[in-house]
Design a protein that fits this description.
Blueprint: H1 3-21, H2 34-57, H3 60-83, H4 89-96, H5 110-116, H6 119-142
Helix pairs in contact: 1-3, 1-4, 2-6, 3-4, 3-6
Length: 143
Amino acid sequence: MSIIIVNIIFAVLSIILYFFINSRGLADGPSPTVFNLILSLLFLTLWLLFGIFRGREGKTSFFIFAIVFWAIGLGISLVAMNLGPNPLILVTFAFMAPVNGFMFFEFMTIQLFIVCMFLPLIITCIGYFLGRKKSLKNYDTQD
């Protein structure tokens, strides 16, 4: 199976899964709980590990994919949030759900929460570079 297809499947499935299991309090309803916070941290850990795995493979296509995937999702989300009610709001919810657990902290404002939406991109990039660093270190010691 093509590496890009695996990346797309991983990204879409992780977003869909977290859309359903971590959306408590995303629109209206009860506030997120500690469980939602744990789910958000697990989501970030999952992307960190996937980034490390892809970085160790030395596939720059994953790094580009991650940036494009998160940039498109976040861009659509930011536009949809400013348009008011529209069908794109589902994309916004999908990209907000993974980090929704951070709203457990009552000091979180919507502006701070939007910053948290960039965490998966940042964490994925960190994972990728950690994996690349480990991969290059192993390559240097083999000579």
